[in-house]
Amino acid sequence: MTERKGTAKLDFLRKIEIEIQEKWEKEKAFEQDAPTTVGESTNKNKFFVTFPYPYMNGRLHLGHTFSLSKCEFAVGYQSLKGKKCLFPFGLHCTGMPIKACSDKLKREMELYGNPPQFPDEEEEEKEQPKISDEIIIKDKAKGKKSKAMAKSGSATFQWDIMRSLGLNDQEISKFANAEHWLEYFPPLAVKDLKLMGVKVDWRRSFITTDVNPFYDSFVRWQFITLKERKKIKFGKRYTIYSPKDGQPCMDHDRQTGEGVGPQEYTLIKMKIVEPYTAKFKSKVFYSSAMKGKNIFLVAATLRPETMFGQTNCWVRPDMKYVAFETTSGDIFICTSRSARNMSYQGFTKDNGVVSVVMEILGQDILGCALSAPLTSYKIIYALPMLTIKEDKGTGVVTSVPSDAPDDIAALRDIKKKQALREKYGIEDKMVLPFEPVPIIEIPGYGNLSAPLVCDELKIQSQNDKEKLAEAKEKVYLKGFYEGIMLVDGYKGQKVQDVKKPIQKVMVDRGDAMIYMEPEKQVMSRSADECVVALCDQWYLDYGDAEWKQQANEVLTSLETFCEETRRNFEATLAWLQEHACSRTYGLGTRLPWDEQWLIESLSDSTIYMAYYTVAHLLQGGVLNGQGASPLGIKPEQMTKEVWDFIFFKTSPFPKTDIPKERLQRLRREFEYWYPVDVRVSGKDLVPNHLSYFLYNHVAMWPKDNGKWPQAVRANGHLLLNSEKMSKSTGNFLTLCQAIDKFSADGMRLALADAGDTVEDANFVETMADAGILRLYTWVEWVKEMIANQNNLRTGPADTFNDRVFASEMNAGILKTEQHYDRMMYKEALKSGFFEFQAAKDKYRELAIEGMHRDLVFQFIERQTLLLAPICPHLCEYTWGLLGKTSSLMKASWPVAGPVDEILIRSSQYLMETAHDLRLRLKAYMQPPKNKKVESKPPAKPSHCTIYVAKSYPPWQHSALSLLGKHYKSNNGALPDNKVIASELGALPELKKYMKRVMPFVAMIKESLEKNGPRVLDLELEFDERTVVMENLVYLTNSLELEKIDVLFASEADEKVKEDCCPGKPFSVFRSEPGVCVNLVNPQPFNGLFSTKVDIRQGDNGDSIIRRLAKVNRLIKDLSRVKLMRYEDPVLGPRRVPVLGHEEQGKLTISNKSVFNINLEEKRVTVADNGLTVDIGDSLVYLVN
Questions:
Q1: In this structure, are residues 889 and 24 in contact, taking their beta carbons and an 8 Å threshold?
Q2: Cα-Cα end-to-end distance for the chain
Q3: Where do the DSSP E strands lie in 186-273?
Q4: How far is CA 419 from CA 51, 985, 1111, in A?
Q5: Residues of the chain with pLDDT under 70
Q6: Where are the alpha helices (DSSP H) in 463-557?
Q7: CA–CA distance from 657 to each of 205, 217, 635, 651, 950 (Å)?
Q8: How far is CA 389 from CA 133, 337, 347, 531, 1062, in A?
Q9: Where does the Leucine--tRNA ligase ubiquitin-like domain start and stop, copy by copy (predicted)?
Q10: Range 787-794, long-range pairs (CB < 8 A, 24+ positions)
Q11: Domain match, 375 and 406 both
Q12: Cis check: omega of the bond before 1133, within 30 degrees of 0
């Protein structure tokens, strides 16, 4: 970004914001309580919006701000619509990251001192970046890096990460205590959000974990209830596990691999079928354990949906494999590393024991015939690939050359190189007949994406590692997110939607199994390589059929604002199974019935919106809940029965020493505010948090659908200046940095403009800068209008442009209201600010007679209200400038008056006509094209004749009539051009116009799509001539012409009649001859000088004054100009004017005077009251 020259406008906005925020704080503008009595009425006229509480291990950044701005704008709008609005804001501290970071700081101080003296970078062993074997399309619900890692940029040590947050060494050492994070970052988040001006009721804010006794009690109550309702079960779940230590290996127990979670693969079973190859047969022959058994090569894939395209499988000739016996008695062949993982996942008879029946080299498996699931080839073969690695997967790789660049490169290699085949004993029949199978259509890459991309990148062999990495980057992600299946049973479905169903089909048939291994290598502190093991854990049974059905019921009535969000929910609810809700490490609430376990962060955050409704009465704004309760209630008094009474309206009054009226008040708050009207979040939370949100609400209130969520608004991620936000690249902004740089309202304007859909939005810094200028200019204009209001026009507001402006304002209000209702803030900003301002600018330009005072102030008030949800500080300030005594926060949405659509379209026609006239004038002024002679451009025209048509030329009339007839009979559709052309060609009156007819039809069709069926009308809906006549002064002035005549096309020649049709006027420019005279100003010291002006036949005083004003821009007010002639046209100009008696010897020219010219003699006379006199070569003008 270019460096700013000054910050005066920014400083002005920031000053206003601070003043306005202090005013709101003083007025307690956003503190809302339920009414004292709440009946069973469903129309409570309230609006309760929430945002997933952000994690408190750093400052809030622009990504958080983008999502929460949607809540903020919604509250601003709904409040104007007269609803009682509640926007509470909690702060999340549950989970592993804070604890892991604090423990890491402890370790760094133990190892390197306090403050730590870290080794130089050269001394550290740096892991060389390597080209990844596979691009993992991650489920965002699993295996996330800690947010501290995500925010750290390129910092290696936790201490450095803390320094990057602006902390000094003395402060950092305090963060070795996990509780210090809970005391430090939450108040900063509150402070930053207050600077943004969010309409939050801060009394209801809280932090999570057992540090907060009230919230801890609430979560314990939730989990006791879920367990009673059989939603929580105990059983085996996948977790990172250290066989050496004999226990799960959590982040704090790891030497390497912090933040790494289990990665799910589909284990494809490829049965080795007879006849065996000689090498393999000799191996099996000597192994009694393998005789008569089903033997499978097992391959781990992340893309089960691509198995339809298998042409072979790959093994590495020199790699050591093991054959081991599974629980079913089958033999699996894979690497010993993967077999070790499988042994902890129920694949073997004894947990953790691999029953190896044979060790075998890859070269002994080559050429084996295989029966593989889903592929169209009955038999495929095991072929050699030299690049398979041992540290990931099973060492056996499925081959799908249609969609995997590595596979097509290797397949082409072995097809081309006979010597390679011979070296490994591969017969031609095992390779040559196999061609890639089209299974997925990818936009831009067709149905054989891998061969296409490999050809584009000119990949010669499987050794072109870098090019293959680039090819995978191009194909894999696009294929997964945009690919469409081509195979039977799944044809037309998105790849990402069928992955789970296809996996399930194969698993159910026994063709595949679920297999897990760590995403990356994890080493425990005891130097043991960790595996993924099935361990006993408490889990929420989201796979339960009845619970799933209820969650789908919630989804049916849920407003999702866009179909993609709904489809994402449907896909998630379809595949969602058990979710482990317990952890042994981190911060949080302990499981009430088994306190060795902590409730993890995605499980204690599903119904806390209910806690918001009562938090202010329990905690009173003290974030950790350890202050005095406003109702005098103690945490230990909050028993299960007390919580039941508050949240379940059928629960009886509990045995408690809490006074009844206080508990009833808590219940009343909940009953009034619930359900959640909208929850706003990033789209990446749909597969986890937002789905759990639906599940848990229906579990807690199964028979009370009035408590179920009403709407979820999911948005895309936020780019910063079209690039991903990243600390390491410096393309990153925290919330407080953004406010410092752009002001709160400037930032909010750019956030609203960033985007509305589930696609990625884009915060553009130049837009934010332009926003500052727009807002500043707007408020300055308001001040100018208030100062000059007595100079604005009064009386009836009934001119053409008055009526248009009033209608455009009303239309703008209605349009903006629709966008706000749909939470489409980019569109609301467009219609409610950019277009609204454009309507005012157009009115100012067209209203030659001056803007009307009532309309101007109506506009200022309405504009303030339309923009208020997005830029509340400046709008509150403007509201005050208008003399409003109450806060804008108590104002109402403007009521739109009638909208005259025809009038608005007639104004649009006027603007299009003015634009067309300018283009025609520009073309008229171009010199004629003559290559031989250099031509001079023609003189600027002085006059114009505009021809308007009442009806279309006959040939166009016939074509339109036919199109109109088809449109009505075909339910609003037109036939193909061939049909239209043949029908029009049959009409005798169109024969000579056929070359022009079809282009005309094409233009009408295009216009029909844009403007609707009115383009087929044979006449305009408004009087074209009247519109032009009402705006003749504007058109004349804007084109700098003397006069415009408006005639009907029927009065013109044939060419004009042919080229002129309704809505498309035809113009002819011309220059009227004139006689040049001097216009003299004898007034001293006023900067007005003598000038020359042409006088034309029929001119009057007014037309000459207007012409003078065009030449002399210092003349602003034409009514103050007086035109005079000399009594003696010969001697008068020679006499020296007498100071103070400038009118002496001169006579006034009245408006009734008419000038006549004699071009041959260059003489001008003026006729007034029957008297005609010669004016000589000079006239006089005086400005009063």
A1: yes
A2: 51
A3: 232-242, 247-248, 254-256, 262-273
A4: 64, 69, 91
A5: 1-5, 38-43, 121-155, 250-253, 259, 285-286, 525, 930-933
A6: 465-482, 495-509, 545-557
A7: 26, 17, 13, 17, 86
A8: 8, 11, 23, 17, 74
A9: 1072-1183
A10: 789/853, 789/856, 789/857, 792/850, 792/851, 792/852, 792/853, 792/856, 793/849, 793/850, 793/851, 793/852, 793/853, 794/852, 794/853, 794/854
A11: yes
A12: no
Residue at which a domain ends, from 671, 706, 724 = 724
**Is 489 domain-assigned?**
yes
768-780 pLDDT tens trace: 999 999 999 999 9
How far is it, in rounded angstroms, from Cα 706 to Cα 666?
A: 18
Instruction: Please indicate, yes or no, if residue 494 is contained in any of the structural domains.
Output: yes
704 is a domain residue: yes
- Asked if residues 196 and 735 have their Cβ atoms less than 8 Å apart, the reply is yes
- The conformation of residue 1150, written as its DSSP 8-state character, comes to P
Cis peptide before 52 (omega within 30 of 0): no
Assess whether 456 and 472 both reside in one domain: yes
Give the residue from 402, 685, 374, 396 showing the smallest Cα distance to 515: 396
What is the pLDDT at residue 291? 78
As given in the structure block, the two tokens for residue 23 are 């005013």
pTM of the predicted model, to two decimals?
0.79
- Provide the domain limits for residue 1022: 905-926+939-1070
Residue ranges in 717-799 assigned as alpha helix (H): 735-742, 744-754, 765-787
Residue 115 burial (C-beta neighbours within 10 Å; 0-12, 13-18, 19+)? middle
- Residue pair 1157/1096 in contact (Cβ under 8 Å)? The answer is yes
In a domain, 864, yes or no: no
Residue with tokens 């206080």: 662
Tokens of 592: 């009430």
| Amino acid sitting at position 15 | K
Structure tokens at 913: 């006509």
- Let me know: does 1063 contact 1027? Beta carbons within 8 Å: no
Residue 869, Cβ neighbours under 10 Å: how many? 27
DSSP letter (8 states) at residue 625: S
**How many other C-beta atoms can be found within 10 angstroms of the C-beta atom of residue 723?**
10
**Torsion over CA of 615, 617, 618 and 621, rounded to 10 degrees?**
70
Q: Which residues pair with 689 in a beta bridge?
A: none
CATH of residue 485: 3.90.740.10
Handedness of CA 707, 713, 718, 724 (dihedral sign): positive
- Estimate to the nearest angstrom the gap between the alpha carbon of 813 and the chain centroid: 23
Domain CATH for 1106: 3.10.20.90
**Residue carrying the six token digits 């980019």:** 826
Tell me how long the chain is.
1184
Phi, psi of 392 (to 5 degrees): -150, 140
Number of domains composing the chain: 4
Structure tokens at 1029: 């006549």
